[in-house]
Amino acid sequence: MTVTTEEHTAAPPAAPAGPLLSIRGLEVSYRRGEPVLGGVDLDARAGEILGVIGETGSGKTTLARAVVGLAPVTAGRITVDGKDRTTLRGRSLRRARRTGAVQYMFQDPLRSLDPDLTVRRLVAEPLAVAGVPREEREQRVLTALDQVGLDRSLADRTPGRLSGGQRQRVALARAIVTRPRLLLADEPVSALDASNRNHVLRLLDGLRRELGLAVVVISHDLDSLAGVADRIAVLYRGQVVEQGPAEAVLTAPLHPYSALLVASAPSLDRTHRTDLALLRGPAAAPPAASDCAFAHRCPFADADCAARPAPTAHGPGRSAACHHAPDWRARLSR
Ligand SMILES: Nc1ncnc2c1ncn2[C@@H]1O[C@H](COP(=O)(O)OP(=O)(O)OP(=O)(O)O)[C@@H](O)[C@H]1O
């Protein structure tokens, strides 16, 4: 599949010195609830794919929604291209959304695409919202369809007459048609079969390279992030417990929870299969009151784990929030 950039002949904008997306100390609480995100720090650079992995309910969707101003941020700061988005309200928030510089691809394309609109209109909609002149829209729509490998002959179909993979491409075309700087893709392949999954992941890979996009791919499935993410952040109960280069996280996880995910992923486990029994086994006896999100499930928890572990650097761009990150692995072989 080719990803064309007919209209994007200009080189992608030079990558800014800092990250395109920067999240610091992000807290989100829904009304009367416990914080769903409790102090998240994350960065994504232009041209990079950041994978965010976590089990159901860990706060992945909330994280993406917070970036686009759809979740109640109670503390922290989110900047995109150096501009603070957490302070945007009312008209300035609507104006920022309309530009389409940050795009959020919803989890379920069947539910997020209006069933009565044709592909042409669905993809043109964000352009109309962004104020792109009508006469430019048709060409931009066709270019976006080409970019996601969707045959132009499908432009007059409605979502109900498309396959799951085609619908996901329509959602992707809608997301890139405004030439965003940042794309948040929420479970973009979870509803697809293996072949379509690979196509969509390759598309994301091509698009971020050719358009210089920062892409955040949210997934509960480590296998689908493995081939595409440059870096991976592991979310557990609203906290980033580990982040780092994908290869490092996947081959030598520093947090026991990441290790459990890696050892459980069918196509990933290479060396840690024997760890699984211990990692899945009964928790140690964590302190009665522990601020570590994982202590209640952790086979290595002890008195040290009463306090919440601060994310500690373990090399460039690598951190883990675990008191025992340096030593738990040694205990596996005992
Ligand atoms: N609008 C809301 N109001 C109240 N609670 C919410 C709301 N949206 C999400 N939550 C709660 O926040 C927590 C995190 O939900 P979120 O959807 O962010 O998790 P997730 O990791 O994306 O899960 P999944 O993989 O199942 O989509 C859950 O406990 C959920 O019930």
Automatic annotation (TrEMBL):
CDD domains: ABC_NikE_OppD_transporters (cd03257). Keywords: ATP-binding, Nucleotide-binding, Transport. SUPFAM superfamilies: P-loop containing nucleoside triphosphate hydrolases. InterPro entries: AAA+_ATPase, ABC_transp_ATP-bind, ABC_transporter-like_ATP-bd, ABC_transporter-like_CS, Oligopep_ABC_C, P-loop_NTPase. GO terms for molecular function: ATP binding. Residues 21-262 form the ABC transporter domain. Pfam families: ABC_tran, oligo_HPY. Belongs to the ABC transporter superfamily. This is ABC transporter ATP-binding protein. The lineage of its organism: Bacteria, Bacillati, Actinomycetota, Actinomycetes, Kitasatosporales.
